[in-house]
Amino acid sequence: LLAYLNAEGYRENTLIVFASDHGEAFSERGLEGHARYVYPETTEVPFILSFPFRLEPGIEISSRTENVDIWPTILDLLGLPEREGVDGRSRLPELLAAERGEPLPERDRPAIAHIDRHWGQRGRDAAPNVALVDGDMRFFYTHPNRPNQPPRLELFDASKDPDELENVADEHPETTERMSALAQ
Q1: CB 3.0–4.6 Å: which of 45, 81, 82, 103 could bond 20 by disulfide?
Q2: pTM for this one?
């Protein structure tokens, strides 16, 4: 497709967007598959734009975005008006800051990932799993598998544990409580 766009001269006015709605777990935590949990292996996915006529090529931004940001970003890049009632926001300020070599703007709220583990299963009660990411801290609220069980609350500090495998919720009770309140 890219070769065709280049050969026919369409690449100069074509925005190419590559994104994914989820990743895949390959037993990093003893879990396999996708769309049941919100750990990084299923929520950390690429968002790649090829927009050669507006931005310098090769800009790489490692900050966290959310899929709800895709349409607002594309509309902003194209100079089209933003849509009302959209949860996402344009990431154009980060793109332009990166292009100019400036520091990226700080996030003003945690990033969120949510899935109902029972999606697509008629007659089953909701079983929400929620992840919140605030800086280096990632919090997980996992709905219990059985009635009368408490939810599983996990907190990981990516600055000290890049694979996010050591639960530090007990070491940071204030952060765990704050993020748990946001997740529910």
Answers
A1: 45
A2: 0.73
